[in-house]
Amino acid sequence: MPGRLDGKRALVTCAERYMGPAIVELFAAEGAEVVADTDPLTDPAAPARVVAAAGRVDILVANLAVAPVRANPWEIADQDWLVLFDGLVHPLMRLVRAVLPQMIERHAGKVVAITSAAPLRGIPKLAGYVAARGAQNAFIRSVGLEVARDNVQVNAIAQNYVENNVYYPPELLANTDMRRRMEEAIPMGRLAKPWESAELALFLASDRSDFIVGQVIPFSGGWTLGQG
């Protein structure tokens, strides 16, 4: 049975972190030739270098993750703010800037950004992180609109409460009291498994999502509805 990404070449950034491992595994199983890059992309020249090294990129999965810094809004340090934007916002723009010319030339391409649901609801003491993730989401909406007529689909998965090695690692989830409190905040009453988010990324990277552009899709078990 043919895979859903047969003949496609996918670049997955920060492939060892956040949703990278699950996406790399699923995309490869679905027939994609996966370039699993692990550069942190904080060097301004790194995104263009990574895209150039990958060659043809049919699918870009902009998977970026930086640990949030807790602070009241009146206590946010400039350095903490800059770390968040340098690790999340600027690499996303530079990756998209580097990959779009070849996609526009071919009149085909997919960009899937793994962002966060945090800006869709807000989280106390994480204003800097929420602002950076919000900037990512706004960028995706605008770019998706701009390149829609070029048959390039740009979308984001705005997730929260998905098991991963950055925000919800095994050692955190092993704390039964912490896990209970998290599950109480999620209307579905559980965290998502990494493969569940990867399946949504696969759909957005496949030809089956050709009519979806500029969307920031919540993936949080109902948490963004504000009922948790």
Task: Describe the SSE topology.
Blueprint: E1 9-12, H1 20-29, E2 33-36, H2 46-54, E3 59-63, H3 78-106, E4 109-114, H4 118-121, H5 127-146, E5 152-159, H6 170-173, H7 176-185, H8 194-205, E6 216-219
Parallel strand pairs: 1-2, 1-3, 3-4, 4-5, 5-6
Helix pairs in contact: 1-8, 2-3, 3-5
Describe the protein.
This protein has 228 residues and is α/β, with parallel strands linked by helices. The chain has 8 helices and 6 strands; from the N terminus they run E-H-E-H-E-H-E-H-H-E-H-H-H-E. It has helices spanning 20-29, 46-54, 78-106, 118-121, 127-146, 170-173, 176-185, 194-205, and strands spanning 9-12, 33-36, 59-63, 109-114, 152-159, 216-219. Strands 2-1-3-4-5-6 form a 6-stranded parallel β-sheet, sandwiched between helices.
Which keywords apply here?
Rossmann fold; six-stranded parallel beta sheet; 228 residues; alpha/beta; single chain
Q: What is the fourth-level CATH superfamily?
A: NAD(P)-binding Rossmann-like Domain
CATH architecture verdict = 3-Layer(aba) Sandwich
Shape, please? globular
Query: What is the mean pLDDT?
Result: 96
| Count of structural domains | 1
Structural class: alpha/beta
Q: What is the C-level CATH assignment?
A: Alpha Beta
Give the low-pLDDT segments: none
How many helices? The count is 8
